[in-house]
Amino acid sequence: MDKDKLQGMDKTGYCLLPNFYTPDELTELHEILRIFHHNWIADNRDFYQQRAINSAYLTGKKYLQSAQRKRLFDFLASHKLMEIVTAILANDVCFMNTQLFFDPVQNEQKNYWHRDPQYHLTLQQQQEALTGPRVMHVRIPLVKEHGLELVPGSHRQWDTQEELQVRLEQEGHKNHEDLSSGLAVPLNVGDVLVFNANMIHRGLYGNDRLALDILFCDPIPELLQFVDESCLPEDGFLNILDNGKAFSNTLKIKASINQQQNGH
């Protein structure tokens, strides 16, 4: 693995690692995610049919059996994956969540440019977040897909006028319009794409995409307060993982948050 390439993310906001996994290394993961996806659709049929493009909380207990969850935790806490994550976020990295991305059922549904924090931060706070703690997506495609389109460097640079008007649909613009600064990053099975959640990006639909995103972050309580504890491994799982530091770091911070909230 090229650690220099990963550390260069500070400039561009993203890093593509081609052929990081062999197809065989992803076979079991693909099987587990198909089971999750099937069960999630059955439970969220209207949302799926109308507008959904992703699901979340894959490591929870609702849609996977215990043995399937354990195999998923094994993958997420593998030395191979954690080597990428710690090269970027260091050993105090924390696990946040998982998401599964797929194509919308409605063919006319458009993709959209966004920064992840725009859905819970004001415009000024979004600007301040560019110099704040990091949240990283690790995307692992399970089929060959069009991938993502990114604006390189936008994790540290504020929007140009064009970018802001399109992203926030100002002055008659729509958030699905092409940006002159966009860079498409197609993905093959086995590739891994790491990118900063602050950067301007959009998913590119098509090819019946099925991609796992794992979200990691710096050890900041404000980022971790909403982590669903049911998605974290129990002691019986945690103790046998190859490299469970991202989970154990999150659990420690969550325990501290809970103590403070309970007045202890």
TrEMBL record:
<dbReference type="Pfam" id="PF05721">
    <property type="entry name" value="PhyH"/>
</dbReference>
<dbReference type="GO" id="GO:0016706">
    <property type="term" value="F:2-oxoglutarate-dependent dioxygenase activity"/>
</dbReference>
<dbReference type="GO" id="GO:0005506">
    <property type="term" value="F:iron ion binding"/>
</dbReference>
<dbReference type="InterPro" id="IPR008775">
    <property type="entry name" value="Phytyl_CoA_dOase-like"/>
</dbReference>
<protein>
    <recommendedName>
        <fullName>Phytanoyl-CoA dioxygenase</fullName>
    </recommendedName>
</protein>
